[in-house]
Design goal:
This protein folds into three domains: about 160 residues, no CATH class; about 90 residues, Rossmann fold (3-Layer(aba) Sandwich), CATH 3.40.50; about 100 residues, ATPase, nucleotide binding domain (Nucleotidyltransferase, domain 5). The chain is about 35% helix and about 20% strand. The protein has a six-stranded mixed sheet, with helices on both faces. A six-stranded mixed sheet has the order 14-13-12-11-15-16, sandwiched between helices. Helix 1 packs parallel to helix 2. The longest helix is centred in the middle third of the chain and has 16 residues.
Length: about 375
């Protein structure tokens, strides 16, 4: 059995190939540039050469790719995009035309557009991963796939996307109050979660697919660190390249949460937010009015001197925190924490009892084999 877990962030895409016959620490893994960084670099190269660019494919993560596209147009070069590709930058296509200067073209027009650089957009590229593993003698043929991406959701006109996302988080926590609530089999993705939908549309393969939000995946994965798992109540903070999210967790699930932009916070601000999350005083406006996504409290009971468990590629931001953080390293690798979270969620939401049992046994410490004793290695 093979299960592929991919955690796609702003800076990197982190890949873990799970084989229940192996000790989980022996699973094969990659940490590579994120899809949006790959697109960013390709557009930047086209800008330096003065080439026109055509974007086709699917809606995917923006950020660096959007900045490169805007700079390309500002440099006086043409950039064309199909409707689905243009939604990477904004669901409002008029904004993409007017504010970014990108020319929207139909699929038929794209097929005949005479440009030097054609870039296909997609968050999840299974063919590239198959090709990456092949030179090492690993035949990638997964029985199930899990992919995590960050999704603001498709907010209606006039509805803040930051508020829209937090209203969605609130609904999922109130409905299920577990972090795997943010994972879905492909056929059950809510229509409003358009980036998750796009991942499923771009895949189209035979193996069952689960998609999940990145921040809950990272926190769920961090919980498999033994020191973190021993804490019945704690604050888990994922400091990502673009977003920082903290969950206050207790025996009954989520007790509170906040999410901010990493570029908008420093250590004193984060320490203050975590203190208020712990004592129950944090309010939505404290974060939202500071250009963050927001905050939610489900328990006003104070959590004195809470253990602070930190993960994420920007975790060094909290190294000198007054809360004396513990840096989680589930199964010895912080960068793959999101993949472990995706695996755990897959065990909850996939209908296959065999897959769920295999994942749970490995994550909970069932001994496997070394690679040379694995008949399928």
């Amino acid at each position: 059995m093979q299960i592929l877990a991919v955690d796609i962030g702003t800076g990197t895409q982190d890949v873990f190939l799970f084989d229940p016959a192996l000790d989980i620490e022996n699973g094969y893994k990659l940490v590579m540039p994120s899809p949006t960084m790959i697109v960013h670099r390709r557009i930047k190269e086209a800008t330096r050469r003065g080439d026109d660019v055509l974007l086709t494919g699917f809606m995917m993560g923006g950020g660096p790719s959007q900045w490169a596209a805007r700079d390309h147009v500002r440099a006086g070069h043409n950039l064309y995009a199909t409707i689905s590709a243009a939604r990477t930058f904004n669901d409002d296509l008029e904004y993409v035309r007017r504010e970014m200067g990108i020319e929207i073209v139909s699929e038929d027009e794209a097929s005949t557009q005479p440009v030097a650089v054609h870039i296909e957009l997609k968050d999840f590229d299974l063919a590239s991963l198959v090709a990456a593993f092949a030179p090492f003698g690993v035949r990638l043929n997964p029985d199930a796939i899990g992919v995590a991406v960050f999704d603001h959701g498709d907010a209606p006109p006039g509805y803040s996307d930051r508020q829209f996302r937090f209203d969605y988080l609130d609904r999922r926590i109130r409905e299920l109050n577990r972090l795997s609530a943010f994972a879905y089999p492909a056929q059950h993705i809510p229509p409003i979660m358009t980036r998750l939908q796009s991942v499923a549309s771009s895949y189209g393969g035979p193996a069952p697919l689960v998609v999940m939000d990145t921040a809950p995946a990272a926190v769920l994965g961090a919980m498999f660190d033994p020191a973190a798992a021993s804490r019945p109540r704690a604050i888990f903070c994922n400091v990502g390249n673009f977003h920082v999210l903290a969950f206050r967790m207790g025996p009954r699930g989520v007790e509170g949460v906040f999410e901010h932009h990493t570029g908008e916070v420093d250590l004193p601000k984060l320490d203050s937010l975590i203190s208020r999350l712990a004592d129950g005083a944090l309010r939505h406006a404290d974060v939202f009015d500071d250009m963050g996504h927001g905050a939610l409290m489900y328990s006003a009971d104070p959590l004195p001197a809470p253990p602070l468990i930190v993960t994420g590629p920007r975790r060094s931001l909290m190294r000198s925190s007054i809360h004396k953080p513990y840096f989680a390293v589930p199964f010895g690798d912080m960068m793959i924490a999101g993949c472990f979270g995706v695996l755990s969620a897959m065990a909850d939401v996939l209908p296959s009892a065999e897959i769920g049992l295999a994942i749970r046994q490995s994550l909970n410490g069932k001994a496997g084999k070394p690679p040379w004793e694995n008949d399928e290695g």
